[in-house]
Amino acid sequence: MKIYLIRHGEDSSCYRGGWSNNPLTNKGVEQARFLASYFSKEFNEEKIKLISSDIKRASQTSQYISEKLGIPIVYEKEIREINNGELSGMSNEEAEKKYEGLYFNTLEYGEKYPKGESPKEFYERVSNYLDKLLLKKSDDTYLIVTHGGVINIILYIVKGIKWSNKSRPFTIDSGSITLLDYNSDEIEVVFENWNKKRIHLMEDRKKHNDYRNVRGE
Predict the structure, then answer these.
(1) Rounded to the nearest 5 degrees, what angle is found at the Cα of 144, between the Cα atoms of 166 and 76?
(2) Predicted confidence (pLDDT) per residue in 125-158, tens digit
(3) Can you give the pTM of this predicted structure?
């Protein structure tokens, strides 16, 4: 089983994220289109399942991929970003006035956002989803369009590192791809945080190697 963890395209940094339904920026749309193009070249006849968070920035990203590959989207609430309650979609300026100093990494592990979710609940939700996914043990390829927080938790689990909201996060760029391979009850990270620049670099390297092979070098 191959699992591609795809972080949605860029959304505005002027607002708090979480369960915000702010749309993609122009750059985010460009990133989503690039992902769609990349996957259309990457796959031929593999059994591909496209799963997405139903939060707007993720669902918009998955729609570009769906249209390009001609496959349906299955929306899963379990892979939403953390529920930041009253801060969802709030401007940074307003959030600082109403909830000064309140950030994801300042919460206690079991402390909830106002009318939202705690880091503990978030971790358990994502961990349970990963367990459910791995139980499928299929040969399918999964494209999962989700969020940076979700991908971070999954990477901590796969790497066997204890996670908390105060842990140093892995860098997961908007519009990036992280690939996991699950085989015979073992799961490993094949690559992580491949953004457009890294993908182009690897494609150029492959073309160069192919050229050298043709020449017999």
Answers:
(1) 85
(2) 999 999 999 998 788 999 999 999 999 999 999 9
(3) 0.92
